[in-house]
Amino acid sequence: MQAINRFFKALFNFIVGDWIILGGVAVSLLFVAIVVNLSNSESLKQLGGFLLILGLILTLVVTLRRETR
Amino acid sequence: MAWSAVLPAFLASLVEFVEALTIVLVVGVTINWKSSLSGAIAAILTLAALVAVFGTTLVAFIPIEALRLFVGVILVLFGLKWLKKAILRYSGLKALHDEEAIYEEEMRALRARGETLPNKIDGFGFATSFKSVLLEGLEVAFIVITFGSSAARTEQEKGNSLLAATIGALLAALLVTILGFVVRGPLTKIPENTLKFSVGIMLTTFGTYWAGEGLGIDWPLADGFLIVLVGLYLLVSFGIVTWLRPYGASRRAVKAGRSS
């Protein structure tokens, strides 16, 4: 069990190492996936790219904001 | 030739090769070149075997759209991580990653072990060189596979894109190796933070683009939107650095006050 935990911790640290970035990216992608795939409106689908970029920039700002404390 | 895979693979691999070569040079100079180079060659052979098995499997069995989304997400995570660190260093909230300091630290650690073995393979030297090349090489293999696979628009283009990304990585390897031989010391001349910042921008840009495509987004201007994304992320990053600089300055002032 400990070995599995250690493996996932090492994998997490290798790929991202930051829960805010991981959470922010996950939420952004989920939100955009819902907007793009479940929406019937073409204009909302076009908005998906903008929402994705905005979500990623917000994620970066939030994780950097934490470093100022 | 999928040129969109060559440049990002080249830049991303360059950073990894610089780190690997620093360790190989330290081992070569302080222990002996036989240990250092044999460790590096063993790692390269291990990597080649890994890429031959898993790389082919990955490319052959995973549908390109799903792969694009997957690697897009991974690249975004990698990119934001690198970008965050580079921004923190530029703003003064984190010390600049100093290759020279790493080199000196490695030198001290190796000298502390005492003897140097001119012609025999030293276990420590071999292992140090092996693990650093293997680790950095795995990252390069990851970069090559992700960039190569994702740059392809169709299944038929995958082979060409992988080849293009491999060429990018090989060019980076060649450049760093030549530099290593020319300088004959750690590659402290390359401003590491600038490289990491550029790679962070590239990874985030390509990650955003591919993840978006994987989700079904049709980007305006098609591939041309990559340039828009680069410009946008650069602009935002410089804005954030400007915003964070006063925090970095005040943190340095507090540290200076404590030490005096």
In words, what does this structure look like?
The complex is a heterodimer of chains A (69) and B (260). By secondary structure, chain A is mainly alpha-helical. Chain A contains 3 helices and no strands. Chain A is flat and about 50 Å long. Chain B is mostly helical and 260 residues long. Chain B is 82% helix and 0% strand. In chain B, helix 1 runs antiparallel to helix 2 and helix 1 runs antiparallel to helix 7. Chain B is flat, with a radius of gyration of 20 Å. Chain B starts with a helix and ends with a helix. The model of chain B has no long low-confidence stretch (mean pLDDT 76). Classes of the chains: A mainly alpha (69), B mainly alpha (260). At the A-B interface, helix 2 and helix 3 of A face helix 3, helix 7 and helix 8 of B.
Secondary structural class of chain A: mainly alpha
Query: Which shape of chain A, going by the Cα principal axes?
Result: flat
Q: Mind summarizing the main beta sheet of chain A?
A: none
Low-confidence stretches of chain B: none
Topology:
The complex is a heterodimer of chains A (69) and B (260).
Chain A: H1 2-15, H2 19-38, H3 42-67
Helix pairs in contact in A: 2-3
Chain B: H1 3-30, H2 33-61, H3 64-90, H4 99-112, H5 123-151, H6 158-183, H7 192-215, H8 225-259
Helix pairs in contact in B: 1-2, 1-4, 1-5, 1-6, 1-7, 2-5, 3-5, 3-7, 3-8, 5-6, 7-8
Key words describing this protein structure:
heterodimer, A: 69 residues, mainly alpha, B: 260 residues, 8 helices
In short:
By secondary structure, chain A is mostly helical. Helix content of chain A is 87%, strand content 0%.
